[in-house]
Amino acid sequence: MKATSNPESEAIRNRFFEAIGELKKKYGLTLAAYSRRYNLDPSNVAKLKAAGRQPIPGWYLAVLVKDYAVSSEWLLLGEGTIFGQ
Question: 40: domain CATH number?
Answer without folding.
Answer: 1.10.260
